[in-house]
Amino acid sequence: MLRLARGRLAGLPGTSVSAESALYVTAPVGGPEQGDFLNQVVELQTTLSPRDLLSALRLIESELGRERSVRWGPRTVDIDILWYHGVSVQEADLEIPHPRMEERRFVLEPLSELVPELVLPSGKTVAEALTLVRDQAVRRLPAGPNEAILGRSRSSPVDYSAVHAEIRRLAEEKEAVILAHNYQRPEVQDVADITGDSLGLSRQAAASSARMIVFCGVHFMAETAAILAPDRPVILPEMRAGCPMADMVDVEGLQALKDEHPGAVVVSYVNTSAAVKAISDICCTSANAARIVQSIPSDREIIFTPDENLGSWAAKKAGRAMILWPGFCPTHEWIKASDVEAARAAHPGAKVVVHPECRPEVSALADAVESTAGMIRFCREDDAKEYLIGTELGMLYRLSKDCPGKLFYPVTEVSVCQNMKMTTVDKVLVALSTESPVVTVDPVTRAKALRAVQRMVEVGP
Ligand code: SF4
Question: Is 49 a residue whose pLDDT tops 60?
């Protein structure tokens, strides 16, 4: 029934489904005769007015057997407008934002998957309001194997073929290359020319003959592309898509640490701003971090920024002590050792492959610790049939495409990067049409940052 309803929503004129939460099971609200119900929050991009959208929703409900006169009891389907892009409507039969959304965990829980920072009428964010209703009984349904949780489920009826065709037509007309990071939504990955990790994408884009680069990722990635390809505009479809880990290190703080350790070599992960790269000596990726650290003369101190987990993993592999900046990626930090143990118990034959941004105790439990590119290589070459993957959930989609016949399960379903999921196909289409917003790096910063990136390339991939 939910699938049918989602399919109808996607088919409304001027409307597409840009994001959807997982499914939740909720105890009856109206009494035991009602039975448990399934619920989900869906984000729509629509040109319909709130009133026209409401009329369309009532029609869908009635087509699916809903009788609005029945208050409680088996009602088949109930579709409400929770929020309409900040618009407020106060009419007898239509109130936006939905007047009771803040009281209900079954609304806030799925909503928090999509927009945890959305500010509700009370002034609380969705994430804050959720903490007040945790005692209500709501259960998230587990994902099946290979389900790239956010974006769409395997059985999703969302049809992206029309928007994909228009994006591809425009990309050809404008001689644009579309890059998508491995953590992007499946439908965004599907429309890209190249998918991969951040530095690999930037390097391939710089080597291409494209006139314009559209980077479906987060801000530092577009900056890196602008550093490597200064002669072409680099477009980031969602300018608000940042990286909390990159934001954890700033120029002032790093400069102060450098001043305390004047002889130290600064190694910065590519997940940093251009300004931080500019005051670093050399960059690294998650794939080559240990090799970069090994390349530094043994009599020099090393400052590693911004990811403490990647830094301690690289330090261990390279056999070097380092001064670690206390940053972390929240998406990987959420993965706990107990999640690995529980996932292993549920899938005893599966190998555990995690990203080096995970906590040390998580990496210690894994069969392999790999960058995203390394995960693909490992799972392709390895002879196991099932894997538990400890990284952002978008990676499961990429792995299931690249390793047909193998099954992939998330170590935990909480490892979703909200910033990575902000880019939708509709935003890619708008960005291509308008050739904006463009990410730039000033020439002085660019020249210094490029030096750090080039030093890394000289050490090896
Ligand atoms: S997954 Fe982590 S490192 Fe990557 S963009 Fe999100 S917060 Fe940043």
Answer: yes
